Amino acid sequence: MLLVDTRLDPTEGIRLTMEAAQSGSGEAMHLFAVLGASGRMGTPDWPRVLMFLQRAAEQGFPLAQAELALLADDAALSGALAQGETPRPETWDRLRLAVDLAAWLRVPSTRALRSDPRIGVCESFASPALCHWLIERGRPHLKRARIDTLKTYTPIFSEARNYSSADLDLGQTDVAMHLLRARMCALAGPTTTAMEGRSEEHTSELQSRLHLVCRL
């Protein structure tokens, strides 16, 4: 909450996260990977993000271990992890090196359908494995969706919207999600800070503080 609530000071959240990461918390180390991937530390340094993710996996954080298997496209290991198997210690370094960042960030070719309005198709934008990952990550957070009122923009329930949605805060996201966001931005044009749910002022403040104190 210290990192994402604009009413609070992120410095304390960063300090506490650093202390936890340095004391061996894989969850805290994973949060640093997410911070780096999110753009809140400036332009993502993806090799550094993967290094944080490897450290989190080495410290036994299951989410980081599963992410590395997904990012490295190692379906066999993903299945083994799901069955509760414990890989050899050197597995995480191997997986980090196997992640093809260029492929993750490469935008598939598009096919134009109409020029006005501009409509196109981008085939195979997300793999079946990544889609399954997103579904399972969002499933525990599904709630009845709401709409914003026209005048006050207050979220309300309405019969006009009868499906469920999942809103994830920064701590509930992961590196795979942010890589997909980066691919979306490469395809559509805007930066990640132009996406919904982002405060430009808070992002700028957090970036400046992270540049000063995030030195793991």
Concise synopsis of the structure shown:
By secondary structure, the chain is mostly helical. The chain is 50% helix and 9% strand.
Helix/strand class: mainly alpha
Poorly predicted tracts of residues: 198-203, 205-216
Work out the number of β strands: 6
Task: Report the order of strands and helices.
Answer: HHHHHHHEEHEEEEHH
Largest beta sheet: strand ordering: 1-2
Helix content: 40-55%
Q: Quote the average pLDDT.
A: 84
Please state roughly what percent of the residues sit in beta strands, choosing from under 5%, 5-15%, 15-25%, 25-35%, 35-45% or over 45%: 5-15%
Q: What's the shape?
A: globular
* Tally of individual helices: 10
Radius of gyration: 19 Å
What is the chains' assembly state? single chain
What's the end-to-end separation, in Å? 21 Å
Describe the sheet with the most strands: 2 strands, antiparallel
Give a verbal description of the structure.
By secondary structure, the chain is mainly alpha-helical. It has ten helices and six strands, in the order αααααααββαββββαα. The protein has helices at 10-22, 26-38, 46-58, 62-71, 75-82, 91-98, 101-105, 128-138, 175-188, 200-213, and strands at residues 110-115, 118-122, 143-144, 147-148, 155-156, 164-165. The strands form three sheets. It has a two-stranded antiparallel sheet with strand order 1-2. A two-stranded antiparallel ribbon has the order 3-6. The protein has a two-stranded antiparallel sheet with strand order 4-5. The chain is globular, with a radius of gyration of 19 Å. It starts with 9 loop residues before the first helix and ends with a helix. Residues 198-203 and 205-216 have low confidence and may be disordered.
